[in-house]
Structure formats: C-alpha cells, structure tokens
C-alpha cells in the first residue's frame, strides 16, 4: 500500500512540475513576442535613419557644387552617414538574428508544453475496485510501476 501511495505522490509531483514548466514556457513565449516587436520597431528606426542619411548625402552633394568649404564639411558628414548606415545594417542583421532565436525558443517551448501535456495525460491512477489497495499505472505500459 505504501509503495502505491508513494507512486501516487510521485505522479502528483510530476504533474505539478509539468504545470510549472508549462507556465514558464508561456512566460518565455510572451518575452519572445515582446522581443520580436522590439526588433521590428528597431528596424523601422534603422530604416528611417538610413533615409535621413541618404537625404543628407544628396544635400551635401548639391552644396559641393556651390562652396569648397562645404565640400569638406559634406565629405565628413557623408563619411559619418556611411558609418551610421553600416551600423544600422549591422543592427538590422542583429534584429533578424534575435527574431530567429526567439522563433526557435517559441518552437522549443511549444514542444516542451506538448511533452508535459503528454506526461500529465499519462499520469492516471487505476484502482482495482477495492477500497484499501490501489495501483498506479501510466497509459504507456513501459512507464508502469
């Protein structure tokens, strides 16, 4: 009787662990969704910065025709814009990489949730009809006590 009761307690603890893991997965999926939105907003900011840099480069090119002094200033600004554009491109690659990582984590969480849901369903207590004894079984016979 103690053996079966211990088995029942172990099964209940496994179900509690599964529920906790499923809650953790849900929290992780919310985090991944927030990160994905943040990456999308960062990509919009990067694209806007690239448009501003391109506009500045056009203005600088027009100014070069008019003044030699502006040529030096514009060349410097153009270089700065080119560096900023490279930085924005790197940030966009990093955002895409983060989005891929988040998507992968979401798939892993979904798989973990499926595993824990399966384990929870497999924990079934089957009684033999008597009031003083019980038997702990899993739906999967290889897991039976």
Brief sketch in words of this structure:
This protein has 145 residues and is mainly α. It has helices at residues 2-66, 68-122; strands at residues 123-126, 135-138.
Task: Provide the structure class.
Answer: mainly alpha
Q: Report the portion of residues in β strands.
A: 5-15%
Name the average pLDDT: 74
Order of strands across the biggest sheet?
A: 1-2
Characteristics:
145 residues; mainly alpha; two-stranded antiparallel sheet; 2 strands
Would you kindly provide a written description of the structure presented here, covering whatever features stand out?
- With 145 residues, this protein is mostly helical.
- It has one domain (2-129).
- Helix content is 83%, strand content 6%.
- The protein is built from two helices and two strands; from the N terminus they run H-H-E-E.
- It has helices spanning 2-66, 68-122; strands at residues 123-126, 135-138.
- A two-stranded antiparallel ribbon has the order 1-2.
- A hairpin with an 8-residue loop joins strand 1 and strand 2 (135-138).
- The chain is rod-shaped.
- It starts with a helix and ends in a 7-residue tail after the last strand.
- 5% of the residues are buried.
